[in-house]
Write a structure and sequence with these properties.
Keywords: Cell membrane, Membrane, Phosphate transport, Transmembrane, Transmembrane helix, Transport. By secondary structure, the protein is mainly alpha-helical. Helices cover about 75% and strands about 0% of the residues. It contains 15 helices and no strands. The longest helix is centred in the first third of the chain and has 60 residues. The radius of gyration is 36 Å and the shape is flat. The chain starts with a helix and ends in a 7-residue tail after the last helix. The relative contact order is 0.09.
Length: about 375
């Protein structure tokens, strides 16, 4: 028993101590030699992958967009051209990146290519609409078109002065009704509403957001028919119909802006014994003014091109009528629709040109309102100290 133990002890001692003559022991005890061996191994292992040139992705995209355009011009249609451009760009950029940048870099390039292709595909209908409207509407987009009405015009000539003024009047009155109601509702929901009434108002605002525009027109027509009889048409009815569509948009936008006002500002005002209503007027609303104004502008842009409710409630007229409480009025959307739908067979081009010019005017008004909204948000946003 003691002999075995002694033998094991000697063996362990010889193994642990060693004489330094076994292969590899000297290498392990020499830091310089160990570093050389590690460098020799790591030299053959790429720790990082290469990367594509900075302009590789945009140039590849441009090349396949050109290829898709050639497919379109060859007579295969825009849909096939768009598919060729999107699929070809995604496949090539993924394969190229997989070879140069490795699997992880290739996957990142693949996702970026898919997002870029989806964005461009979504942009195609918008570009197509704008291009078509501008090319077709430029024929009559002149001073005569905006200074003349259709009164006394049979075929050629005429303009949309009455429709432009009617659009501004009807939409302006709708904004005058919608903005106070929507803003007051949003203030109540954020600052005061906590019970069932607030939940009920929120529910009805959500429902009104999804109401089809023609339903709003039918509702307003049925309401005014009770007081004025069947066949009633006037500009004020159109304003009420548009306000039904505008109010939920104003409520939602104002509500979100009021939520962004820091509670610290309210609490600081309350700490100075300022009443709640005065805090709302002097602190909350000025802080959220830029966002509220932007939401109101976008709400106006959303309803200014409505056709169905105005066709039911306002109708159309050939001459100027600036009184929204007296008879029918003309609006740009209904004017464009009637010019296109009632064009006779012998003078279609004149009617079509007027319809496209009215559509171009509407697009320019909507684009202007969106630019105004961005300008308001930029100029009147609360300034923060760096």
């Amino acid at each position: 028993m003691s002999t075995s133990t002694t033998s094991l002890g000697k063996g362990d001692g010889n193994h642990d101590g060693g004489d330094g003559n076994e292969p590899g022991n000297g290498d392990l005890n020499d830091p310089g030699r160990a570093r050389e061996q590690a460098n020799a191994v790591l030299t053959d292992v790429p720790l990082t992958h290469g990367s594509l040139p900075r302009r590789a992705a945009p140039l590849t995209l441009l090349a396949f967009v050109a290829a898709g355009a050639l497919v379109w011009l060859a007579g295969f249609g825009p849909v096939l051209g768009a598919i060729v451009a999107a699929v070809g760009y995604t496949a090539v950029i993924y394969g190229w990146s997989r070879r140069v940048e490795g699997r992880r870099g290739a996957f990142d390039r693949f996702v970026t290519a898919v997002v870029t292709s989806a964005f461009l595909l979504a942009l195609l209908p918008l570009i197509s609409v704008i291009t078509t409207v501008v090319s077709r509407g430029a024929a009559r987009f002149d001073a005569d078109f905006f200074n003349n009405s259709m009164l006394g015009v049979v075929n050629e000539g005429g303009g949309a002065h009455h429709a432009l003024m009617g659009t501004l009047i009807v939409t302006g009155m709708a904004a005058l009704m919608s903005v106070p109601i929507g803003l007051m509702t949003a203030i109540y929901l954020i600052e005061y509403g906590r019970g069932r009434l607030a939940r009920g108002i929120t529910f009805f605002v959500d429902v009104m957001t999804g109401i089809p525009s023609i339903v709003a027109g039918l509702f307003v027509y049925a309401l005014f028919e009770l007081f004025y009889g069947p066949g009633i048409r006037m500009g004020f009815m159109g304003s009420v119909a548009l306000s039904v569509l505008m109010i939920p948009v104003v409520v939602r936008s104002a509500e979100e802006m009021l939520k962004l006002v820091p509670n610290e500002l309210r609490e600081a005002s309350y700490a100075l014994a300022v009443p709640k209503w005065r805090t709302i007027v002097k602190v909350v609303l000025p802080t959220a003014l830029a966002g509220i104004a932007t939401g109101v502008t976008l709400a106006i842009a959303r309803v200014i091109g409505e056709t169905a409710p105005l066709l039911i409630t306002v109708g159309i007229t050939r001459g100027d009528n600036f009184n929204p409480f007296d008879e029918r009025m003309a609006t740009l959307s209904v004017y464009s629709y009637t010019q296109y739908s009632t064009a006779p067979g012998f003078a279609q081009e004149a009617f079509f040109d007027r319809a496209w010019s009215a559509a171009l005017a509407l697009i320019l008004i909507v684009m202007t309102l969106n630019l105004v909204a961005r300008l308001i948000a930029k100029l009147f946003a609360p300034k923060t100290r760096a």
